[in-house]
């Protein structure tokens, strides 16, 4: 498959970035890390917006950068679409003008989405004649994405697109964005500092810390990497499960999902039976039990095997990674509980799941129960 | 107004129009280069370009006379090339006006260009615009109000030119005799009614032009978002 290869380094004051990555030529790859990790700088280097980048960038069989041979394709020649954190719409024209600006300069060699379909997917039809200064944060970013796509790039780069959007509009944005990536078949690089946000969107995850790549894996695996210091430092470890909708129980307002053939109940969702949904589970919402519990309000008890225990002598909590078939689930319990239950790797336990976030194809909302 | 007045008026308008056109063509790229420059020489260049703003027109006219007369190097060069002198001719007046009105074109353009953020240009680059296209497709449309205002101000300021013209051009009908010189002459010869007419006409014209400038060039509330 076509991939983006980049082996590059760059010095910016005291900060230096040095990465060697081979990024998937399809799907959404998240770039996540703490502030100052170099996420945006990496994205800008790939786009061609950073000066003095050393190394090589290859996209398919085209060379974008080869500093040893003095090759550096300028940003306007690279087939990338960029969505900036601050949208950067042109103020001299309206929404339509911004979109047509990109459409007129579209790459010819790539099959893109027609103008009207971009408008429809990003819900922009009614905004066309609006002045860009009058748009809300969410509207601005939708216009910015439409503008980037109308350029018909081969690679879409997003730099914290949700940073300037209020909470209420985030869900809509995520929803629209997921529909878009499914229709576009365009590889996407998505920079964010929010693990929740990227969990519902990405297929792969690159974890960046202080200018270095500390993990690059399928997102379900990457979020479990307890050897990665930035993940260790977080106080809310997460895991991602892919589930299938089994059936709905409208009377009880519940949907029955299957995680590797184990039933999991969530508040009713709209996805049809048979559809796949993604679940985001915070480790602190997963308790462990040696035996199947009765007389308990928690409905979800998944049989699991303990795969590994991360247990620091100077920490209050221990993170337990469980395997449920091919899925992995993290549970955060106190070290005292871990000792009292005498939990060991390989033990069979029940994971008591108190809460999950469900992301459907057309809907993304956190739910608690 | 007399036939003479009309001739002077035509010379004045031609001079102002030509000066504005030359300055617009020269200052657009110059101001853009300067506004993107991070050179430590920028303040020096800006100061030099703003000199005509504060220099007495007679001083400017005097230096131009010294530099451009056919016996001087520059004036001599021009004379050899074209067979024409630069002092007491329309061509010389155009050169003088270009220098005299330079800040009136330069300042509004610089002001507008300075507000264009690098981020906006990066966005344009990411949409396929090379440096040239960024200037024509983004910078110019973003600055159109300032461009119109700068042109009008330059035109108006050139119309009102007096001291430099007197030093450099003298008072040759149909060649260098501009409206302000005509009026000065009328006052000198106590023809107050003619002076009144011209003064009123210039006053009205200047006011209307400035009204147009301020109508077009409101402080911009629209910003890059």
What do you see in this structure?
By secondary structure, chain A is α+β, with helices and mostly antiparallel strands. In chain A, 22% of the residues lie in helices and 39% in strands. In chain A, strand 12 and strand 13 (254-259) form a beta hairpin. Chain A is globular and about 65 Å long. The two termini of chain A are 42 Å apart. Residues 361-369 of chain A have low confidence and may be disordered. Chain B is mainly alpha-helical and 225 residues long. Chain B has one domain: MetI-like (MetI-like fold). Chain B has 11 helices and no strands. Chain B starts with a helix and ends in a 9-residue tail after the last helix. Classes of the chains: A alpha+beta (369), B mainly alpha (225). Chain A binds chain B through residues 47, 49, 74-76, 80-82, 84, 86-93, 101-102, 105, 107, 131-133, 135, 140, 147-148, 151, and chain B through 119-120, 122-130, 133, 137-138, 141-142, 144, 221-225.
């Amino acid at each position: 498959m076509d991939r983006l290869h980049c082996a590059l380094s760059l010095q910016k004051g005291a900060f230096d970035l040095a990465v060697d990555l081979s990024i998937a030529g399809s799907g959404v790859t998240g770039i996540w890390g703490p502030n100052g990790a170099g996420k945006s700088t990496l994205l800008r280097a790939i786009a061609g917006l950073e000066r003095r980048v050393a190394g090589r960038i290859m996209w398919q069989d085209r060379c974008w950068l080869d500093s040893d041979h003095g090759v550096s394709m300028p940003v306007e020649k690279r087939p990338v679409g960029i969505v900036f954190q601050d949208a950067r719409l042109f103020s001299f024209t309206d929404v339509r003008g911004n979109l047509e600006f990109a459409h007129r300069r579209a790459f010819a060699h790539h099959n893109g989405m027609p103008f009207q379909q971009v408008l429809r997917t990003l819900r922009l039809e009614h905004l066309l004649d609006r002045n860009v200064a009058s748009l809300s944060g969410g509207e601005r970013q939708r216009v910015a994405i439409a503008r980037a796509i109308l350029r018909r790039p081969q690679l879409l780069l997003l730099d914290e697109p949700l940073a300037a959007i209020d909470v209420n509009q985030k869900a809509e944005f995520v929803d629209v964005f997921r529909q878009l990536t499914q229709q576009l078949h365009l590889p996407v690089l998505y920079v964010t500092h929010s693990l929740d946000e990227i969990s519902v969107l990405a297929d792969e995850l690159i974890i960046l810390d202080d200018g270095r790549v500390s993990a690059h894996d399928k997102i379900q695996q990457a979020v479990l990497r307890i050897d990665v210091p930035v993940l260790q430092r977080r106080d809310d470890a997460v895991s991602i499960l892919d589930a299938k909708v089994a059936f709905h129980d409208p009377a009880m307002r519940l949907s029955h999902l299957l995680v590797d053939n184990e039933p999991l109940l969530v508040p009713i969702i709209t996805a049809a039976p048979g559809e796949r949904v993604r679940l985001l589970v915070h480790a602190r919402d997963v308790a462990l039990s040696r035996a199947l519990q009765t007389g308990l309000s928690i409905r979800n008890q998944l049989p699991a095997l303990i795969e590994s225990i991360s247990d620091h002598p100077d920490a209050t909590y221990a993170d337990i990674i469980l395997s449920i078939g091919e899925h992995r689930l993290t549970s955060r319990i106190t070290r005292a509980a871990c000792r009292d239950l005498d939990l060991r790797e390989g033990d069979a336990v029940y994971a008591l799941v108190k809460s999950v976030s469900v992301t459907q194809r057309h809907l993304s909302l956190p739910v608690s129960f | 107004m007399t036939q003479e007045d009309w001739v002077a008026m035509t010379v004045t308008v031609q001079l102002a129009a030509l000066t504005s056109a030359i300055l617009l063509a020269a200052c657009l790229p110059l101001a853009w280069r300067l506004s993107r420059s991070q050179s430590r020489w920028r303040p020096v260049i800006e100061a030099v370009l703003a000199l005509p703003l504060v220099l007495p027109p007679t001083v400017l006219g005097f230096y131009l006379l010294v530099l451009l007369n056919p016996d001087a190097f520059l004036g001599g060069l021009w004379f050899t090339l074209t067979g024409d002198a630069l002092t007491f001719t329309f061509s010389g007046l155009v050169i003088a006006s270009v220098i005299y009105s330079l800040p009136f074109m330069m300042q509004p353009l610089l002001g507008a260009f300075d507000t264009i953020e690098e981020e906006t240009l990066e966005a344009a680059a990411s949409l396929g615009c090379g440096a040239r296209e960024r200037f024509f497709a983004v910078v110019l449309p973003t600055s159109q109000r300032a461009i119109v205002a700068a042109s009008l101000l330059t035109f108006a300021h050139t119309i009102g030119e007096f001291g430099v013209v007197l030093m450099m051009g003298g008072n040759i009908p149909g060649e260098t005799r501009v409206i302000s010189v005509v009026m000065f002459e009328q006052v000198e010869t106590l023809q107050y009614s003619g002076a009144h007419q011209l003064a009123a006409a210039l006053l009205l014209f200047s006011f209307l032009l400035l009204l147009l400038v301020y109508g077009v060039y409101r402080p911009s509330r629209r910003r890059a978002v």
